[in-house]
Amino acid sequence: MARIAGVNIPTNKRVIISLTYIHGIGRTKAAGIVEKLKIDPARRVQDLTDQEILQIRETIDAELTVEGDLRRETAMNIKRLMDLACYRGLRHRKGLPVRGQRTHTNARTRKGKPKAIAGKKK
Predict the structure, then answer these.
(1) Biggest CA-to-CA distance, the chain
(2) Strand ranges (DSSP E) for the chain?
(3) Coil, strand or helix: which one is 17?
(4) What is the pLDDT of residue 117?
(5) Torsions phi, psi of 118, nearest 5?
(6) Is 18 helix (H, G, I), strand (E, B) or coil?
(7) Separation between Cα atoms, residue 81 and residue 86, nearest integer Å
(8) Per-residue pLDDT tens for 62-78?
(9) Which residue, 5, 82, 104, 117, has most beta carbons within 10 Å?
(10) 111 with 96: CB under 8 angstroms?
């Protein structure tokens, strides 16, 4: 099992798909890495040599912010907004949608399970 950026990536999948298991790497970035290192996109991770895995690891470390660093950076950005008490920060603090979505209906993912309101029924 190959370990890149602290994540065990699946060995029986294609390289591009396996790299997407790393937080911060999607299909496009994975394809870019594979193209840059001139690795055949159809190859499986188990078919890669140790040298190729090392090259992938070094490329990711040098060029991308992934996993723990990316999560920390995102959390710090949200915390900064909350400390500023700007509109977006207040929405984060209240657990409501931040980007202008409606909340009268929908928004259940951000708001959580529906709460009953006493005396509402007529």
Answers:
(1) 71
(2) 2-4, 7-9
(3) helix
(4) 81
(5) -70, 135
(6) helix
(7) 6
(8) 999 999 999 999 999 99
(9) 5
(10) yes
